[in-house]
Fold this protein.
Amino acid sequence: MSDNVYIPKLSKIFEIKEEVTGARAIKTFRTQFVENNGFSHKCGQCAMLSVFGKGESMISISSTPLVKDYLQFSILKTGRVTSALHEMQEGDVIGVRGPYGNNFPLEKWKGKNLIFIGGGIGLAPIWSVLQTALAKKADYGKLSLFYGSRTSQDIVYKEDLKELKNDITVHLSIDQKEKEWEEYVGFVPLNVLDKKPSPKNAVAITCGPPIMIKFVIQNLEALGFKDDQIYTTVENKMKCGIGKCGRCNIGMHYVCKDGPVYSWAELKKLPQEY
Amino acid sequence: MVNLDDLKKEALNLLKDEKVKYIIGYTEGSNGTSAAPAFIKNPEDTDKLVWNPGCFHNLTRFLRDEKKRKAREKHPDERPVGIVVKGCDSRAINVLLQEKYIKRDDVFILGVSCESTGVIDEKKVAKKLKGKKAQKIEWDTNRNLVVTTEDGTTKIPADEVLAERCVECPVHSPVVYDIFFGDKIKRTTDAQFKSVEKIENLSQKEKWDFWKKQFDKCIRCYACRSVCPMCYCDECVVDTISFAVTADTTAEEKAQRIKWIEKSPTPSETFIYHIIRAIHLAGRCIDCGECERVCPLDIPIRFLNKKLEKEAKSLFDYEVGFDPDQLSLVSSFKDEDPEDFIR
Amino acid sequence: MAEEFEPKIVAFLCKWCSSAGSDLAGVSRMQYPPNVVPITVMCSGSVSPLYILSAFNKGADGVLVSGCHPGDCHYIKGNYYARRRIALVKELMEYIGLEPDRFQMSWVSAAEGIKYTKIIKDFVNILKPLGPQTNLRRSQ
Amino acid sequence: MEKILTKKSFPNWIAKLATVQIYAPVVKDDLWSYEVVDAAGITTEYTNAIQSPKKIIFPQRELFLEFSHNDNGSPEIRELLPEDKESIIFGIRPCDAKGVSHMDKVFGGDFEDSYYWKRRNQVTLVGVGCNTPPSPNCFCTSVDGSPFSHEGLDVLLTDMGDNYYVQTFTKKGDKLVNMSKGLFAAPKPKEKADLESLHKDAETKLPRHLKDTKKIPPKLKGLFDSEIWDDESMSCIRCGICTYLCPTCHCFDISDEITSHSPLEGKRVRTWDNCQFPDFTMHSSGHNPRPDKASRLRQRIMHKFQYFVEIYNNYQCVGCGRCISKCPVGIDIIQVLEKVRDHV
């Protein structure tokens, strides 16, 4: 059974954290495999989660590979499978198969300043690489994070972000003015432009809604970032996760297998099909 | 006789005078006997228009695409679309008008009479030609199909190659049009529901066996649905997702969308798909027969629609596509509607 | 000896009449077979043919649609629409070779508890000799 | 190995083969279709089947796994692989066999597809070459194929009049011949020469041609945003005929089918899916990267003649002509490709 790529491994949800409530609810799940298996992922990779009877959904793994005893997924409630996940309780069992896709080239970035730029649920894919870099802080230059959400209620990983501020520079932002909000007000791309991170010896990693990514990249370019200094992730509808079912491709790239991580230099060469 | 040159000339004038956005008509197909739909924007291309026994497509199906295209445009061109229609197709326009899916001003109708014939059934012709490829087909004045192949020409009586729907057709010429081509020939048919009666006369078990055998072939390509001018819903029970979803649709709405029919081509699911397709076309199907023609597995889907057409007529005295102002079959009733089956 | 076949009936009952009629049968302690899965709908006119087929698909052996008597519809015309639509469904089902007896329609008012029990009793008796419905049932 | 089998001995050979399940073309309501047959039902005189034998190796519905809730309400799953059953597909056309070899590429690679390979490894492909083109839209020679190509085949039969010229290309193929060694004779030099000229002759009989196919992949690279897709797709009705009938199209969907809600019981199944349906790529948010039929036609053409070429160095088209013959509105892939090739 183990060599069948389509068979998920049963995995127990042992911790659920409500990040955001309301219409765009986000929950963070931590899962442990029921039976030990060789699952080991790299930063930026995804896993296919199953809720039996509902289907499968491709979710990026937000825990760092350095943590071996669980996987973490932060999930925005958006459709059939994610809604079912949101109804699950601690102790419930789901299926997990993977890991799938390529990864952030962390090795290549050694010695560089890393600028993480996330919006909304887009912090999840970044979180894995951020945590990994943080754990090996000595290997990298300055780390910083830009993170924005619609309102202060929509911020994910609230406590972790507070802690993170002790270690690295964190620039938070929300879209519109709120009482008691002391940090930046406005869209993430504008926050980036406002703080003017230096492109010198730096890599920017951005993830979030497509429209945000588009303007973040524009603004980074304006600040002097080169195409190969910008990394982002792409998502498309997926079913198999292994480059066979034929729907997630952008040109000849299957996002599930050849993505989701692309440098802007690579992505620019691909057709606009995402 | 329909004079093709007249049709070309009118089309040319319409485009030259910029009265229409473009013209949906027929042109030569690459595939033997069949014509192909053509979308003509330039006046000089009107010469490509054809009218022949292979013009079976119901072009009103493309009004759906036009409507969607228009909805996407910020400053849409409000001129009508010119469209070539046969008798059956013109009734489709009436249904679309009745359902307020289109407005009369959206179309400029070039109605073409089928006169004493209609369109061919490609499969019947192919059988007659025994593997030879037709280069040209036309009707002569004596209801013969004149087929030109590399070996010369042969004549086949119309009744041997006419599509079944044309044999059972009660109209033959457009009922709504802006310009009419050809002769308005009165032709009656005593066999309007002959194909239905063939199946009605089977025993219950024979009926089931017949349809089981047919639907077992179905590969669920949905060509029957896609080709139908009435199947314009944004949300279809067989799709995995609703196309009416926007950024504002809540997760709950999406999650609670019922999966009525599975994608698997198993007998139960395929049967329900076809029954529902037929029911959704009750009182709307104008028997252009396109669903059956396009089926790659030759499932006689038309028999289902035809049955409901027959029942609508016999139970409720309802006929489709003649009056754009009548109430639709299932959103109207009469006090005397039959209810002997109700306890 | 094999157990006797007990048909499963899915009954779409309109809220205003038939559902109340079945309630009356219940509170009056009238005896009738327990084979029915009642589903209350707002009006018999709201029963889509898809509901009926879906019930068969999910394992029903018989389907009943029941509404108010003509003239009594809470929404004035709903049951007239239902009458038309269901006549067509019934014709089509027969045409396809499905047993037409598996699908019934009735008018049951809020006062007709007895009629409701009678309809169910008769329906069960009709369905028993037909055996399980497999034609439209989702395959295992 | 190369052998001669007389037509008289042919039924005896088939009878021997019939110890395993044989799929062969049979005529059903005027359409040829690959079905399980008994030895007597086998013929080599048939035109193109409406569906290629893809449906046997990659069935439209494949059961993946079974799931249920145990007494504690926890899910349990059970893998459902295709059954152990050897079979022969008899009379597969060379183009369709080539389609199978293309599928092998897709379902192999880094992630082997257990379901596909379980079926694939249990099937032996016995081809019948095409002395005359089986469809009016055959164009295999334009896409690196030929009426007697043996790519993907275990055995190829050529009809030589009174005899069949039998060629085997794999151990599986050898096995079929060795089962009834006595029926086969070694070919004489004349027969070898006849075979060659017959094969050459067959190539000249092809009804359709696409010239300079090689120019198409590089040309497509620059045509992503071209208006050509709008023009060519105007008459498309977005049905799935072209892809479902294609011997190389392999796209699929995975979904959970529930047979009981409480307690939960059901199956995860793979079903064919296709790039011409709008829901194929539509995100849950409603965003669709391929929002119109132009982009979907582009995907079909580009996948077959650019992406596949770049990934596997092969056209993902074998020239069987099914999509042309069966397109309800006459979209002709040859004509579309010609327009692509000649685009300036």
Notes: The mean pLDDT of chain B is 92. The interface with chain A takes residues 250-252, 254-255, 257 of chain B (CB under 8 Å). Residues 193-343 of chain B form one domain. The first helix of chain B runs from residue 4 to 16.
